[in-house]
Automatic annotation (TrEMBL):
SUPFAM superfamilies cross-referenced by the UniProt entry: Periplasmic binding protein-like II, Winged helix' DNA-binding domain
Protein name: LysR family transcriptional regulator
UniProt keyword annotations, A-Z: DNA-binding, Transcription, Transcription regulation
UniProt family annotation: Belongs to the LysR transcriptional regulatory family.
Organism: Kitasatospora aureofaciens
Amino acid sequence: MQLDLNLLAALDALLEEGSVAGAAARLHVTAPAMSRSLGRIRRTTGDQILVRTGRTMTPTPYAIAVRERVHELLHQVQGVLAPSRELDLATLERTFTLRWHDSLVALSGPALLSAVHEEAPGVRLRFVAESSIDTPELRRAEVDLEANANRPSAPDIRAENVGETRLVIVVRQGHPLTRRRTVTVERYAAAEHVTVSRRGNLGNVVDDALARLGLTRRVVASAPTEAAALEFARGSDLLISVPEATTRSAVADLGLVVLPLPLELPSAPVYLSWHQRYDTDPAHAWLRGLARTALAMGGASS
């Protein structure tokens, strides 16, 4: 059975107005067009719907019985096909899953959570760890928002550059390099290093830059998170090269020293990524706005 939703709108107008002319004016169609719609409704339902009583039209018992249901059904259809874009944050109840780089969670997560709780107390945030392999959670709607240095290449994933940060060196207090007036690239390469890689990679863009200068460095270990790598540096002469924004809490809480990186490297970008299905979702757009602000406050400067 093929149904025409236009007939539902026509039936609602006919029952509300009680006449073909009134229903036609309400829906901005001609009277003959409304008469044809009434004929189709009669054939579909097997009921006359409106019958003539003198100069007026009277609804049949069936029409009276379904009037409220028809009106409610039309309202529901309109809600599906033309949903309201208004967002009531005070009553919004929703759980968002965010997969952010661990340093971004530490730096910007608290500000985001505070802003969300203040504006929409019914919203919950789930921060999940990054995977060691590329995963399609954004496509599968298992993750709502990502934030890291990777720009997705998939055409259905949106990516917005919300900032950038440069690399610096982090060492313990009293490290031999802290007693030098400047850290030369040769001294940097001669030291022992720990890389940060959730995949366990021992090399990165730093090694590529050193290779162009004919230098190599000795990487003795890799750590899955910056927090873990900083603990290595805290108790040894190992060097860690990390985004500058990460070092704010490290210097204050761990007693570490930040030194300039003696290499010309482009700043590390920070991308906010989501699936295109959420482009026009009001709640998701609201969260993205708060995330941009929180990431900027955390130290990612554009």
